[in-house]
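Supplementary notes for students who missed Thursday's class. We covered one full example, reproduced here. Read the sequence, then the structure, then the short commentary at the end.
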Amino acid sequence: MGELSKRAELILSLVIKEHIATAQPVGSLTLVQKYNLNVSPATVRNEMASLEAKGYLTHPHTSAGRVPTEKGYRYFVEKLLETIPLPPSERLTIQHQFYQVQMDVEQWGRLAASVLAKFTNYPSLATAPAPPRHRLKHIDLIPYQENTALLVLALSGGVIRQTWIPIPPYIGGTELVRTAEILEEFLYGLSAPEIEWIASRLEPFASKIALKVAEIMNALDQRIEEPIYREGIEELTREPEFSSPAKMRELFRFFYDDSSIRSILDETRLTNGIQVIIGGEGRWEELKDCSLILTRYGVREKALGVLGVLGPMRMTYERAISVVSYVANLMSELVNRLF
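Structure (token representation):
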């Protein structure tokens, strides 16, 4: 993507700003009068014609004005966009909502989707943070009846699991406590495969418990597909691009199709920073009139999730990116603190 002149960049950014606000083709006279440009409408028309020839604008046959193309939006997002920090009052509101549920990791994805939809007025999606593999943080063995004990595991990501296990009659309460202490000493911070390897080197009862721990953790690790939380798809019905019921149904199906969305989220999980998908970029026909703003959050060695918003191609990128970035940074801090 080549560089444009300063004046061409100004005209492109103003066309995009005006089109985002009005959803209408933008004429040269509108730009000159509204933005007090110190040039004639003819000069602006010539600049717009040049931008159209280069593929940044297009000219609807029913109007004398221009509208941005995917290429125009891409140039704007990559080279001209200036993000605006969220106001302190909004940051405090979002912080308060997350700190209320900070110990309940399974609520993070649902809350993130809700917050993004509320503060951007666009449909949103989010996943809860998922560790590459769960790791053991704490183990308890609590005697219950003569031949039964409660095995309690605390795993990375704030995950708690408990199950009843049989115990030999010669194992008393003191022996259970000692076994739990030994297991925590040897198994702390390990994944299921590592625990399986250590188990063969422990005495028989401790080895049996260690293998049960590994079994529980393996079952959790095999839950490859984390739930995707979504909010606010009805927001798009307000946009003129989606006034057609058929178009809205097509987008609705795509938004709620896990296989379609998950392929995009999986790519985002592998990439640093904010990702902006504009017009489907030749890969997703259902998104030809849309933009997706996505980012991963978390800490690679601990846990990662993905969140973002979906909007029309003429979405308010500055606002949407600011909200997505802030929520992602806040959730990354929570992951780093809790996992």
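Commentary. The mean pLDDT is 90. The longest helix spans residues 317-338. If anything here is unclear, bring it to office hours.
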